[in-house]
């Protein structure tokens, strides 16, 4: 498998993989709408890449929200996520191709989670369904029967940090916190989803949309390096902490950094929705 397919796969490559003899890739439809949580499932039922299963952000890619103090999309337990992957028919070594409507925000959450539990044969469909259709890929409303898989999850705790880690960071002279939300949410001029507006003090803003070209495909590795160099003084490294609203679009920034050949950053899964849930945590605005 080409090295870049550990991050992205083009629609042409995905079509070739679908038609190749042997084990077919596992296509996972990750479409979701934060404003209309049922929309992704409905879109999947209307049409999807043949053989796809559907991943619901709330039900499959998140754990129980509880009282909300862990954020809007806390990670599920590795055991629960492993059971979901087996229900989807995942076996060790099988290529997973995650896709969504195009930008890759939701697909990148699945991509990151697969690496988190030890499945490295994973890629995001570059450009999503739009690119698939442009390349001549077909869609169907038929849902295939899925045989239970055998994958067993082994989570890597070193890929994430918790709120206490971030609180301790703020006591340091130098740290790199990168917020993937749009500039208005970062600056606190627009309120969405969470009780407070703004960002974690000391964070810098690198909206995940800046990783994409006009068609919704990922920029080249060299272009991504330049983008991160502009927004992240000193560049992205293995101590960089990526966050967003609830640990979703931050995964897109991680995907982009890894695709650019930069060190794998850390994820703060609770992100702003966890940070802002506590009245005593400091908040910064402006940007």
TrEMBL record:
Family annotation (SMART domains): RHOD
Give yes or no: UniProt keyword Magnesium.
no
Which GO MF terms are attached to this record?
A: thiosulfate-cyanide sulfurtransferase activity
Q: Does the keyword field hold Nucleus?
A: no
The alphabetized UniProt keywords are: Repeat, Transferase
Rhodanese domain spans which residues? 21-141, 171-284
Q: Which residues cross the membrane?
A: none
Q: Which InterPro entries match?
A: Rhodanese-like_dom, Rhodanese-like_dom_sf, TST/MPST-like
What is the name of this protein? Sulfurtransferase
- Recorded source organism is Caldilineaceae bacterium SB0662_bin_9
Biological classification of the source: Bacteria, Bacillati, Chloroflexota, Caldilineae, Caldilineales
């Amino acid at each position: 498998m080409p090295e870049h397919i550990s991050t992205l796969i083009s629609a042409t490559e995905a079509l070739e993989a679908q038609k190749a003899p042997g084990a077919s890739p596992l296509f996972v439809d990750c479409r979701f709408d934060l404003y209309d949580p049922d929309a992704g499932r409905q879109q999947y039922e209307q049409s999807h890449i043949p053989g796809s299963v559907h991943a619901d952000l709330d039900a499959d890619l998140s754990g129980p929200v509880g009282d909300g103090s862990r954020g809007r999309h806390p990670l599920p337990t590795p055991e629960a996520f492993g059971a979901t992957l087996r229900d989807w028919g995942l076996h060790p070594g099988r290529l997973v191709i995650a896709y969504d409507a195009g930008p890759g925000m939701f697909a990148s959450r699945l991509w990151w989670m697969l690496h988190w539990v030890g499945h490295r044969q994973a890629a995001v469909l570059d450009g999503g369904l739009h690119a698939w259709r442009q390349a001549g890929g077909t869609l169907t409303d038929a849902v295939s029967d899925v045989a239970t898989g055998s994958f067993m999850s082994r989570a890597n705790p070193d890929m994430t940090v918790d709120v206490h880690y971030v609180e301790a960071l703020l006591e340091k002279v130098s740290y790199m916190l990168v917020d993937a939300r749009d500039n208005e949410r970062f600056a606190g001029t627009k309120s969405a989803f969470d009780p407070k507006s703004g960002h974690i003090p000391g964070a810098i803003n690198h909206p995940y949309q800046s990783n994409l070209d006009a068609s919704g495909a990922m920029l080249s590795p060299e272009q991504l390096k330049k983008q991160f160099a502009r927004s992240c003084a000193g560049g992205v490294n293995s101590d960089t902490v990526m966050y967003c609203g609830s640990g979703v679009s931050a995964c897109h920034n991680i995907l982009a950094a890894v695709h650019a050949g930069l060190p794998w950053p850390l994820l703060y899964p609770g992100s702003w929705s966890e940070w802002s849930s506590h009245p005593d945590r400091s908040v910064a605005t402006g940007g």
